[in-house]
């Protein structure tokens, strides 16, 4: 904890994994940053949003983050943010690791049951080696609070099987690519320049998912330029902190994925989170302290 001897810093920004699900009140994070770093300019963001700022070096465009889940953020470079997917494995995360893994287990189950369409012996064998007999799977997954990560652990097996020519695995990855292209395209709404990038272990350069995504995006949105990621989420947090230091009035919040506090007050300009990925200009908010429950 700070003893008051630490030199104050001009600004601080953090990107947090699970911000909307694990952090009950981002205001408390602002308080900690302000107290421990002795700064009056703080930003608290989700790691997917700082991934955007890192991947495009703060430029306008959209970035798709793919791991266990999938979410895309679009930014017009001034005041408008858009978000697509990131709804979790029960409602969304289409094309992400959890979705690919779930499709793999469904294909394995179909082969076990004797189905021919959408079935895979290779995936059944891989899943049994990883999780044990299929009869134990319902109990394993339905009672496991970490089932999303458990499901996503099958995604590499699908990639391996596809490389070996398993038709069902190839189809799963192609469909995943279509889903991811849809998510990225959704984030590239009106007002967002046609510049995009991807980040995450499943969409590294030349990965099967990247190939499928690129193919589908080029068909759906040929005007979009898909570029390699130029930086990490940490680079994005540094970019956000520098902007907050140099031009705090230019940083628009996007609750709950980005909240900004300057001199004890929240940013003047904010994109309302309840409008999600709709085409809206950032609201002009008065610079007054928000009640604590506003950000919960």
TrEMBL record:
InterPro entries xrefs: ATPase_BadF, ATPase_NBD, Euk-type_GlcNAc_Kinase
Chain ranges passing through the membrane: none
Extent of the signal sequence: none
ATPase BadF/BadG/BcrA/BcrD type domain ranges (all copies): 10-187
Domain of life assignment: Bacteria
PANTHER family (alphabetical): N-ACETYL-D-GLUCOSAMINE KINASE (PTHR43190:SF3)
Protein name: ATPase BadF/BadG/BcrA/BcrD type domain-containing protein
Organism: Promicromonospora soli
């Amino acid at each position: 904890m700070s003893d008051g001897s630490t030199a104050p810093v001009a600004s601080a920004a953090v990107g947090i994994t699970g911000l909307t699900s694990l952090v009950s009140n981002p205001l408390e994070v602002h308080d900690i940053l302000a107290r421990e770093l002795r700064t009056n300019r703080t930003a608290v963001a989700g790691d997917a949003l700082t991934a955007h700022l890192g991947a495009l070096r703060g430029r306008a465009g959209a970035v798709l983050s793919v791991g266990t889940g999938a979410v895309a953020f679009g930014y017009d470079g001034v005041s408008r943010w858009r978000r697509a997917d990131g709804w979790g494995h029960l409602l969304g995360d289409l094309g992400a690791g959890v979705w690919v893994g779930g499709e793999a287990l469904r294909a394995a189950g179909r082969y076990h049951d004797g189905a021919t369409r959408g079935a895979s012996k290779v995936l059944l064998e891989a899943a049994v080696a990883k999780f044990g007999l299929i009869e134990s799977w319902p109990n394993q997954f339905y009672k496991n609070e970490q089932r999303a990560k458990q499901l996503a652990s099958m995604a590499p097996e699908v990639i391996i099987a596809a490389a070996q020519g398993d038709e069902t695995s190839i189809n799963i990855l192609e469909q995943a690519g279509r889903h991811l292209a849809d998510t990225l395209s959704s984030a590239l709404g009106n007002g967002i320049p046609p510049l995009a990038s991807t980040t995450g272990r499943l969409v590294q350069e030349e990965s099967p998912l990247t190939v499928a995504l690129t193919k589908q995006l080029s068909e759906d949105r040929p005007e979009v330029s898909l570029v390699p990621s130029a930086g990490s989420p940490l680079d994005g947090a540094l970019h956000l902190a520098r902007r907050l230091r140099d031009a705090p009035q230019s940083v628009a919040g996007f609750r709950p994925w980005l909240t900004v506090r300057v001199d004890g007050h929240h940013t003047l300009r904010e994109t309302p989170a309840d409008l999600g990925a709709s085409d809206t200009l950032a609201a002009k908010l008065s610079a007054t302290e928000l009640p604590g429950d506003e950000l919960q």
